[in-house]
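Milestone M4 deliverable, item 7.
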Amino acid sequence: MNQPLYQILGRHKSEALPERKPSWLKVRAPGGANYLQLRQLMRELDLHSVCEEARCPNVGECWEHGTATFMILGDVCTRNCAYCAVKHGRPPTYDVAEPARVAEAIERMNLRHAVITSVDRDDLPDFGAHIFAETIRQIHARLPGCSVEVLVPDFQGSEPSIRMVLDAGPEIYNHNTETVPRLYKRCRPGGRYERVLKIFRMAKEIAPHIPTKTGIILGMGETIEEVKQTMSELREVDVDILTLGQYLRPSSSHIALDRYVKPEEFRDLYETGMAMGFRHVESGPLVRSSYHAWEQVQSAGVA
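Output delivered:
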């Protein structure tokens, strides 16, 4: 554990990251017809998407295919994770009409699978769980054939909040692990790794029929061995779906990028994860939690 990280990763101390992103991280700039139409719809209904707020590199591809991850409860987060581009501060009062507008957007897009996420709302008594639950119900009421995936914050481990969301009947319950335990204090100071494992145990006890999902981003200083150990511990609490992707530094004020993980390493992690028993593993440099979400649902046998 005391071995310097650059030695663990097989690099010389003076070896710098390349100035340009590797070819496997290059994507086309967004701007297709469907992308522009969806952007207009989001503005028209005064909705936020994590695609834009978190500066996802796949926004052009996903929006062009008519899929988006809706971010409810505003665009200001009560936490300040070192890797995240979403704004941090004191959020305004949430909009009780937001679930209906999200459901309207999804109906107008005629989606088969919708992903709903949010900022952390540690300022609210239920941490925002009621709005999640109401959004799920509104989507199912307007578009019964649309499956709903929720990417929820940790709700500070609150059992009533977790139960409230699960009782609304999402098709997938997703909470991101983000990184390995050793880096939590540095990268995710408001979170607790032990709490993540507790959340998944609790979710399976409350609703064993609802698949659980999590994601890890690589390149913040973890080792591959630590990633595999974390994957193993997530399988021990019966997580069904796993995503693994490359960390990209949003700005100079965020945690430094440690390294670019090669595609073949992501392939190895995919094979490791499938051997561990995950129902589906999405592993690659451009993968984010909601990337190819519909394909993940089909592969995992949810839809």
